[in-house]
Specification:
With 434 residues, the protein is mainly α. It is built from 16 helices and four strands. The protein folds into two domains: 113 residues, no CATH class; 297 residues, no CATH class.
């Protein structure tokens, strides 16, 4: 987790401040460690400096060589590593402009300062129904009936409003996820009581899925794969705790509503054309939730629609879920890099909305319920509950890994092809790779 360069700084304090702040903003907005190291190395080498950057799950440390002595600067605490692709793209643009020389260091620091707190790129009257629509779309993708989809939409409105309220009051992210999951699931469940028919189980699952920290989990896999276990394990641990908190909230909500979550759940399949359509709706909502730039939204929708819809199609052809998830995540990675090159935006802008609907949150929730049943029943547990709980837990782990590894392979394929093409066309061309 160290970036090393070998030139000499002109203004150590300003360079250190810029590098630490840019690196922290990239991390909290969804960048993995390799991306941050790449960008900060470019910054230090361009601005002038001999420095080492250390990235942990809590802070960034920058050690600068002043010739006869070393000076270490400690960055501000990293307040959660979530996702904000609009902030990600804006910070990256500042870095690119600073490295290219189109702005000086003073202007670069000023622009970073204006990005915090991160501006919301889309109006609330668009975000709220879009995210509620994502909750409803996820519910339909699980095979729910239309009444249940409607209840999930109502719960989704409560979810996004409560989520935004808790964020403005600086609530602990895990506590906020627990409260939001519980309240939105109860609202969805009680809504179904006033409707002709509907089992709220799938509405509960959708209420949890919209809150699953898929991006930190995927970045954790990426960091582990790229040799950064400290940050990777931190992200995976935080993401896992969040999922457990959401699952326990759904369990409590099911008890309040009077519809216990089952460990064994058989969901009907939906037509493939509906899968493509509702995958597009889900990707649209996630892109707005992630604060994606306006010009990126169509590409985000295409990535999500193609990856999830194609996975369903491969399933109808007999391919197993893990393999189809890996292949479609790899395709999403390739499409994300293609969109990144075309629109000059960082590739996670398109990759995250493209695959987050494939994160197996419902498997994790039901595995958690199975664990609670095992705890309550003790030695009297049936073999079927034990086996089903173990199966759900293993499936969740494998599918999450398939998504993360598929994205990594897809991005590697695109970068390899792109490098070869650039080398053929312009043998001496160098550029900043987004």
């Amino acid at each position: 987790m160290v970036a090393l360069v070998t030139t000499h700084p002109d203004d150590i304090d300003d360079i250190g401040h810029f590098v630490l702040k840019a690196g922290r903003l990239l991390l909290v907005s969804g960048a993995d460690v390799d991306f941050v190291l790449q960008r900060t190395t470019l910054l230090i080498s361009k601005l002038g400096g001999a420095a080492q950057l250390f990235i942990s799950g809590e802070r960034l440390l920058l050690t600068v060589d002043e010739g006869k002595t070393y000076r270490t600067r400690v960055g501000h605490q990293i307040a959660g590593m979530g996702v904000n692709t609009g902030l990600f793209a804006a910070v990256d643009n500042v870095i690119v402009d600073a490295v290219s020389g189109s702005i000086d260091l003073t202007e670069a620091i000023s622009r970073l300062g204006r990005l915090e707190p991160a501006p919301q790129l889309h109006p609330s009257w668009i975000i709220i129904p879009a995210v509620a629509g994502t909750t409803a779309a996820l519910c339909r993708l699980f095979g729910a009936t239309w009444w249940v989809v409607l209840a999930a939409f109502i719960g989704g409105i409560v979810s996004i409003e409560l989520r935004r309220f808790l964020a403005t009051h600086s609530a602990n992210p895990i506590v906020a996820s627990f409260i939001t999951a519980f309240v939105s699931a109860v609202v969805a469940g009680l809504s179904l009581k006033a409707m002709p028919y509907g089992d709220p189980v799938l509405a509960f699952a959708a209420a949890g899925m919209i809150l699953v920290p898929g991006v930190p989990l995927l970045n954790g896999i990426s960091d582990m794969a790229n040799g950064h276990p400290g940050v990777g394990l931190s992200r995976l641990a935080t993401g896992t705790i969040s999922v457990v908190a959401i699952g326990f909230a759904l369990f409590l909500a099911s008890q309040v509503v009077g519809s216990p979550l089952p460990v064994l759940l058989v969901t009907p399949s939906i037509p493939v054309w509906q899968d493509f359509a509702f995958s597009a709706i889900a990707a649209l909502g996630f892109s707005l939730l992630f604060n994606s730039p306006t010009r990126a939204i169509v590409a985000c929708v295409v990535c999500g629609m193609v990856s999830h819809g194609l996975r369903t199609e491969l399933g109808t052809l007999g391919l197993d879920l893990a393999t189809s998830t890996f292949l479609c995540s790899m395709l999403a990675g390739i499409l994300a890099y293609a969109a990144s090159a075309s629109l000059s935006l960082p590739w996670p802008t398109f990759a995250f909305p493209g695959v987050v609907a494939m994160i197996p949150g419902s498997y994790v929730f039901r595995a958690g319920v199975g664990g609670l049943e095992i705890m309550a029943s003790g030695a009297s547990n049936s073999t079927s509950v034990l086996l089903e709980t173990a199966s759900l837990a293993i499936t969740a782990i494998i599918l999450t890994a398939a998504v993360g590894v598929g994205l990594l392979v897809g991005s590697s394929v695109w970068r390899t092809v792109g490098f070869v093409l650039v080398s053929i066309r312009k043998p001496h061309h160098t550029s900043i790779v987004r």
